[in-house]
Design a protein that fits this description.
Elements lengths: L14 H8 L3 H22 L1 H32 L5 H52 L10 H12 L3 H29 L1 H31 L1 H15 L4 H6 L3 H53 L5 H48 L14 E9 L9 E9 L3 E5 L6 H9 L6 E6 L2 E2 L7 E4 L10 H5 L10 H10 L3 H5 L21 H14 L4 E5 L7 H14 L4 E5 L11 E6 L2 E6 L1 H7 L2 H19 L1
Parallel strand pairs: 3-8, 3-9, 6-7, 7-8
Antiparallel strand pairs: 1-2, 1-4, 4-5, 9-10
Length: 621
């Protein structure tokens, strides 16, 4: 029986589209490169105009100096091979030798200037590229992250953020090489036009091999995106502090090592095969190119023997051909770099274009006024790949100052409904209306305390005022929010109080328990001045005393500010103005606690089950 293949090693349905993009013909890709180079240059220009100009001018002057140096070399050889006494020939060649030395010195200075400019330009370009990338990734709605293809495209775009500066550098270097090629071409054509054609034929095999190898590398790279993401995940699981306790508690070391071995084994085989294919391609290209180069020298010898070119021209041609070989080799390398980095930069550009299609069109929407009434009108939501809708035609109304509760069993749609109200997700149909107006994006007048909170690696104070406008919040307001969440005493006991960094991986950082983190998260909600506060399972990790204090603070908001409360502990929603009961995405009951208990429906059953559990525990004690 064959060993099962891990899901991350199988070919995914969307990879065919990636391969199709990667397998575009070489001519089509090369035709598209000028546009990509233009975009990269614009990014570089906006990041630093002075240094971009220095690199461009240095590349042009370097190419010009190469041309000038070759012409000077040609003149030196002509004078040295001319008839006459040696001293006279040396004196005649001296001006050309001086010009050659000056050209060489200038090229050296230009190389230094280019290196200095590139070293300073690179971090600026990387900053601009990553800033634009993360400006998009942090703005797209949550549903974008539900798509496997989006995650994989984002993986490649994130890894290829440095392709811009590499493409800019390769483009300028190619420009310098192109000027050198023109110089060589002029020198060779002057000697004999047939030599130029022979030189092009000699270069073609290496160019083909380099471009073909680049395409093979990129194809392999595209197909390995899932494996790379999986390997990074396994690296984190085996080396990060957060996973370390459960890794040891559940004895996962062998399991994770086997997973890593299987994924890495597949990647190793692919890389070995890639290396073999590239080595074969480059060997063939070098062999054919070597034969063709030898043929160029044979042709040169025949032309010399036939008397079609003089000896001084033949010597010049040898120098020119050697310069041509170096220049063409450099050009092939730069073409390969432009080709490869152009494809990687295209991944970055394509991802940004696709991601921007996901961005909500709410930039022109007016800022919402204070909440009077919030309506959920026939809202439905269906997740990709699921037949059963997460929400199915839900209608409800919340008035300002009310405390309402969403209750139901796991998977009933409570958190999904809260996410739609908060603007974190967009409904498949229906609308959420704020004071009668639909709100397409995240509403700044809504604050959310989620059950799946993230442990932000900032100070305790920053974790409470996170996302608020003020950078230096009032200490009294911070402490008041923390007290309402039963978090103040816990924070005050930390080594640096509210200035304590909540990340153990940094110096003087501290770690918190799950319940302590949940208090910090609840304090963030109380600190917010939003009109509507959504609290999704805010007490799941709290001890009874902290839970009682938290819900007392929630009850104190009743009639003053608006709260949506989601919890499985139904005793804590008895005082809600309205309770909405969901089941399998549908709103099945609504009313006050007393109304729903008297109705004897689903809510009454759930409440009775919980109450019986407490009575049983009390009797047993």
């Amino acid at each position: 029986m064959s060993e099962p293949v891990l899901p991350e090693l199988r070919t995914m349905w969307w990879e065919s589209g990636n391969r199709a993009r990667a397998e575009i013909g070489a001519f089509t890709l090369i035709a598209g490169l000028p546009g990509l180079v233009g975009q990269a240059l614009r990014v570089s220009w906006r990041a630093d105009r002075v240094r971009t100009s220095v690199i461009a001018v240095s590349a042009l002057l370097s190419g010009a100096m190469a041309t000038f140096g070759l012409l000077a070399t040609q003149q030196v050889l002509i004078e040295l091979f001319a008839a006459g006494p040696t001293p006279d020939r040396l004196r005649a060649a001296f001006p050309a030798l001086t010009a050659l030395a000056v050209a060489t010195a200038i090229r050296s200075l230009l190389t230094v200037a280019t290196g200095y400019a590139q070293n300073s330009l690179t971090p600026r370009v990387n900053h601009a590229v990553e800033q634009r990338l993360f400006a998009v990734t942090t703005a797209v709605p949550l549903e974008a992250f539900d798509e496997d293809a989006f995650a994989d495209d984002m993986e490649r775009a994130t890894r290829n953020s440095d392709a811009v500066i590499l493409l800019v550098q390769a483009s300028f270097d190619l420009l310098a090489s192109a000027i050198g090629i023109v110089a060589v071409g002029v020198a060779v054509v002057v000697i004999h036009p047939l030599l130029l054609l022979a030189l092009i034929v000699a270069t073609a095999p290496r160019l083909w091999a380099s471009l073909h190898a680049g395409r093979v590398r990129y194809l392999t790279y595209v197909a390995s995106s899932v494996r790379h993401r999986r390997l990074r995940l396994l690296h984190d699981l085996m080396a990060e502090r957060d996973s370390a306790p459960e890794l040891r508690a559940y004895r996962l070391r062998r399991f994770l090592l086997e997973q890593h071995d299987q994924v890495m084994g597949a990647e190793t085989k692919i890389q070995i095969d890639l290396s073999r294919r590239i080595s074969t391609t480059m060997t063939i290209g070098s062999f054919v190119g070597g034969l063709a180069t030898a043929a160029v020298y044979v042709l040169l010898g025949l032309l010399l023997l036939d008397g079609q070119i003089p000896l001084s021209a033949a010597a010049t041609c040898v120098v020119a051909l050697q310069a041509a070989q170096r220049t063409l080799t450099s050009s092939i390398y730069q073409i390969d770099r432009v080709y490869a980095e152009g494809q990687h930069f295209r991944d970055y550009v394509v991802f940004l274009d696709r991601a921007e299609e996901h961005l909500p069109d709410d930039a022109s929407a007016p800022a919402p006024g204070p909440l009077s009434v919030l309506r959920v009108d026939a809202v439905s939501l269906r997740y990709p790949g699921r037949e059963q809708p997460a929400l199915d035609a839900v209608d409800l109304t919340i008035e300002a100052g009310q405390t309402v509760a969403f209750v139901g069993e796991n998977g009933s749609g409570k958190s999904t409904l809260a996410a739609l109200i908060a603007g974190l997700r967009r409904p498949s149909s229906g609308a959420v209306r704020w004071n009668g107006e639909p709100w397409p994006g995240h509403n700044p007048r809504i604050a959310v305390v989620t059950q799946s909170f993230y442990k932000w690696p900032f100070t305790a104070a920053a974790n409470i005022h996170l996302g608020q406008v003020e950078r230096d919040p009032e200490q009294e307001r911070l402490e008041e929010a923390a007290r309402r969440a039963a978090a103040h005493d816990m924070i005050a006991a930390l080594p640096f109080g509210y200035r304590t960094l909540l990340d153990r991986t940094f110096a003087d950082g501290q770690d918190l328990s799950g319940g302590q983190w949940q208090r910090i998260t609840a304090a963030r909600g109380f600190y917010s001045s939003a009109d509507l506060l959504i609290m999704d399972e805010p007490s799941s990790a709290l001890d009874p005393r902290a839970e009682d204090a938290l819900f007392q603070a929630i009850r104190d908001r009743q009639g003053v500010t608006t709260t949506i409360l989601i919890t499985h502990r139904l005793a804590n929603v008895r005082h809600a103005d309205r309770i909405y009961v969901l089941h399998e995405g549908r709103l099945v009951e609504t009313g006050t606690h007393d109304d729903l208990v008297r109705a004897g429906g689903r809510y009454a059953d759930l409440f009775t089950l919980q109450a019986a559990g407490y009575r049983s525990a009390g009797g047993a004690g």
